[in-house]
Amino acid sequence: MTRGARSGHRGPRLPAWLLALGLLLLAAGVLLARTDWFSADDVESSAVAGRATVAFLDVGQALAVAVVTADGHALLYDAGNSARDVREVIAPFFEERGVTRLDYLLLSHPDQDHVGGMPAVLDTFAVETFLDPAVPSTNLAYLETLQRVADRGIQAQRARRGQTLALGEHVRLEILWPRDPLLRDESGDVSDNDNGLVVRLVHGDVTVLLTGDIEAPAERALVSLEEGTLRAQVLQVPHHGSQTSTTPELLEAVRPAVAVISAGAGNPYGHPHAEVMNRLRAAGIVVYRTDVDGTVVIESDGTSYEVRTQRGWSGER
Ligand SMILES: [Zn+2]
């Protein structure tokens, strides 16, 4: 009785040094976190309720984009390289937001740096619908993904241009690419990069374009198909900033204010390429990179959006 009362009394009292350390860490966190605000004021305003979060997760030389809406809906576009990316980055992000179920699991294309973590995602979260371009592949993680989707009775959808999906009440997903017949290279092969899933996320006035690893041929086709309607405030720079992507024509059609590159620090491919970085800078686009900034989070209220980065301003853009 006495002990209980004593420990109850003692509970909230922390040693002064611990309190000081806590405050110091809090201050450091505030200083390190960086937020930039952008307004989608170049488009007509339409009132949208609810907020939406789009996070370009830092999964190294790979891609994983998580979307969570205020009305409790969520999706994942690509799943990083491995189960470790899921365990250390993807699952904690969703768990912090109370997400246990994904409305959509989207795969841009079946390359390891996009599909690698997908079996682990399916082991961790309930998934309603799986969408992918259904381009043939022998990638083991892709085959495991298809097996799990089938075993669990998850709805599988072959993603093609023209399909539209609702993520809750306020976010719309428009599938812009691929389309039939699939794009073939000069040797007649179906390139999985160039037939990757391109999604336009629309939240009121705020638009985010997710492009996977598409390269110049798919960019050209998309620009001509969209005929001036490819505008987006936020662009996921295709193919980790590779020289084979982000053509001047794509940038001219999208005219983003913000570009996000998912790349691993010191990756052997030299991503992002200097030429692409120069092109983005010359167009006056604010560039965020997961290798420099860590996870990059876009918070939208449907009219404007802010960008928060896991790490502070590095000076290198
Ligand atoms: Zn890739």
Rg calculated over all Cα atoms: 21 Å
How many domains make up the 3D coordinates? 1
Q: Biggest sheet: strands side by side, in what order?
A: 1-16-15-2-3-4-5-6-7
Distance between the termini: 61 Å
Commentary on this structure:
- It contains ten helices and 16 strands.
- With 317 residues, it is α/β, with parallel strands linked by helices.
- Bound molecules: zinc ion (ZN).
- The site of zinc ion (ZN) has 6 residues, from helix 4.
Features:
disordered N terminus; 7-stranded mixed beta sheet; 30% helix; 9-stranded mixed beta sheet; single chain; alpha/beta; binds zinc ion; 317 residues; Metallo-beta-lactamase, Chain A; 16 strands
Give me the secondary-structure topology:
Layout: H1 2-10, H2 16-32, E1 34-39, E2 52-56, E3 65-69, E4 74-77, H3 83-96, E5 101-106, H4 112-115, H5 118-124, E6 126-132, H6 140-151, E7 155-158, E8 164-167, E9 171-177, E10 198-203, E11 206-210, H7 216-226, E12 234-236, H8 248-254, E13 258-261, H9 274-282, E14 286-289, H10 290-293, E15 296-300, E16 304-309
Parallel strand pairs: 4-5, 5-6, 6-7, 11-12, 12-13, 13-14
Antiparallel strand pairs: 1-16, 2-3, 2-15, 3-4, 8-9, 9-10, 10-11, 15-16
Bound molecules: zinc ion.
Zinc ion is lined by residues 63, 111, 113-114, 213, 240.
